[in-house]
Amino acid sequence: MKINDKVILTDADGVLLNWEYAFCCWMEQHGYTQIKNGNREYDIAKRFSITKEHGKQLVKVFNESAAIGFLPALRDAMYYVKRLHEEHGYVFHCITSLSTDPNAGKLRQMNLEKLFGKTAFEQVICLDTGADKDEILSMYQDSSLYWVEDKIENAICGKKFGLRSILIEHGFNMKDEIPEGIQKVVNWKEIYKIVTGE
Q1: Domains in the chain, ordered, with CATH?
Q2: What pTM was estimated for this model as a whole?
Q3: Tens-level pLDDT at each residue, the chain (198 residues)
Q4: For residue 29, how many other CB atoms are within 10 A of its CB?
């Protein structure tokens, strides 16, 4: 496939959207309490002291609920994504392991359009809840596009396919060993500087 070099590949949750905050609020409303320093755990089961199966089930329920259409933007994502799009002509392909439920996909699209505008996202690719991204990322192989993630395994996967992986820092990935060739950032201001060289 011919790929426009003005494309930036991004995950959604933990990169563009503050899924973690919204999910934790939803869990509390449903009677679950996060363990102390739970934000350092990526695994929802560990974070809420529940079984792995139950954790996966709750994430799926949340991702397919109406709440998924109303997630807030993560940190300064809104400002810098709009600048990259409107001032520099970049478009975004969002690759998200949300759900294969078509309504969840529509809510995700609606949420992104509401926060980032109707033209920033050329594609929103929704994979199954928690699904690997290898197959989709392989379609962009050796394109040298930027790939923005919050999960170290997915950043490494992007690097394997010749993408320029950028990892957004969170409590749960602060201790991860970052392989050479993956840049770690705290916010979109840093991504903006990497992409534009400004």
Answers
A1: 7-18+71-196 (3.40.50.1000), 20-69 (no CATH)
A2: 0.95
A3: 557 789 999 999 999 999 999 999 999 999 999 999 988 988 999 999 999 999 999 999 999 999 999 999 999 999 999 999 999 999 999 999 999 999 999 999 999 999 999 999 999 999 999 999 999 999 999 999 999 999 999 999 999 999 999 999 999 999 889 999 999 999 999 999 999 998
A4: 9
